[in-house]
Amino acid sequence: MRKIVGFKINLRAWELLRRAKKEGISLEVSQEALQSDLDRIVKSLKPAILFDTFGVDDPDQKTFSPIPGIAYSLILATIGEPALPLQPVSVGSETLVWEMALEECRKFAVEIINSEAQKDSCELTPVSLLLAPEIQEAAIKKMDGSKIGIAFEESRMTPLLSSVASLSWISKIKKKKPKSQTIREPGADKTPAES
Alpha-carbon dihedral of residues 145, 99, 110, 82, nearest 10 degrees? Predict the structure, then answer.
């Protein structure tokens, strides 16, 4: 089980503007001002991840694994409880910021897991967020989420800005290369002197 806390995450203004536009949220602020605000917010975050990989014989594989594979990895991620509001904001953009921050935490874990999977000749499925409360609770118990301050209380995760995700390890299928068959013209092996 790996626990990593206090790593650097990057929040990009252009990405927030893109997501806000997609959601129909109008941010009346320049990209430069927004980036400055995001940089300030990042300093208030307390990113932490806890992840582990479990083999095919794990009794919880059917519960947590997105698809059957040779293994699966569970990821708990949190950014703590940021105290700073996003200034200036329009209603709804704070949620996008927190989603982006949690996504950055998960990406950090996936990069590490992917390097381990490649060593075992495996590839990973896309990250699957586990949203059902009973599955979140089971994952937090299995991983001992208290190691990074995540708990399950009153039918929800705390801190609220936390997530549980999983991904499956799939064995890479090695394709056999067909033997090349070169068709040679008669006499092609002879040098000009032999002709």
Answer: -50
pLDDT at 37: 86
Q: Which amino acid is at 39?
A: D
Position 173 scores a pLDDT of: 74
Q: Interhelix angle for 93-119 vs 31-44, to 10°?
A: 70
pTM of the entire predicted model: 0.81
| Lowest-confidence segment of 5-19, 64-78, 86-100, 177-191 by average pLDDT | 177-191
- Domain spans, the chain: 2-171
What the block records as the tokens of 164 is: 């549980």
Domain 2-171 = CATH 3.40.109.40: yes
**Cα–Cα distance, 135 to 18 (Å, whole number):** 31
